[in-house]
Design brief:
By secondary structure, the protein is an all-alpha fold. It contains two helices and no strands. The protein has a domain at about 40-85.
Length: about 100
């Protein structure tokens, strides 16, 4: 995944014309389902790590790659499909003050 500025491609229901409401609701519902799947995958890998079961299926390097991918994908879906009430814009990065 390329590191670049990103805005959600899924329009908010409040941002679309009335005639497009059913389609916007459908897209939002589908995107949230995919986000939930990505978060479940991330949580599953975290559970594997905590329990130590990952050692039955992966080498150290393979599991590290899998875990990083699961976290990155979950974070990406959080940006693609923010839940109602979540901020779409990323928090500003604080710059250290020059002395």
């Amino acid at each position: 995944m390329a590191a670049r500025d990103f805005t959600t491609p899924v329009p908010r229901v409040s941002e679309v014309p009335y005639s497009m409401l059913p389609a916007a609701r459908n897209w939002e519902r589908i995107a949230l389902k995919w986000r939930n799947i990505a978060e479940q995958r991330r949580d599953h890998h975290l559970d594997l790590y905590k329990s130590g079961r990952w050692k039955h299926y992966y080498t150290d390097e393979e599991f590290l790659v899998e875990m990083r991918q699961a976290v990155a994908i979950a974070e990406r879906w959080a940006k693609i499909a923010p839940r109602p009430g979540e901020s779409v814009e990323p928090a500003p990065i604080e710059q250290p003050e020059a002395a």
